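Morning run. Coffee first, then this:
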Amino acid sequence: MKPSTTCSLMADLKTEMGSFEALAISLEEKAFYDILKKMADKYEFTFEEDRLLDPSTKVKAVVDDKAQFPDWNHRGISRPHCGLS
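And here it is:
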């Protein structure tokens, strides 16, 4: 990789890392926003970009809710003292 390409890549990364602030959303919400935007582009859905903000926030809320409760029944550990495996 040429030095100019590396510098350009680093500048693009720095810009992207701060892009969530311009949208007034969190970094995690921006990740879901980017996924939704990519899928909309891929499948040629026409959405105004600001219409993706609300679903991004809602997807993050669902993921946060589900991620806080581990699936204790399927952890894959042995519990011989309880008679369970």
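Residues 27 and 36 are 14 Å apart (CA to CA). Good start to the day.
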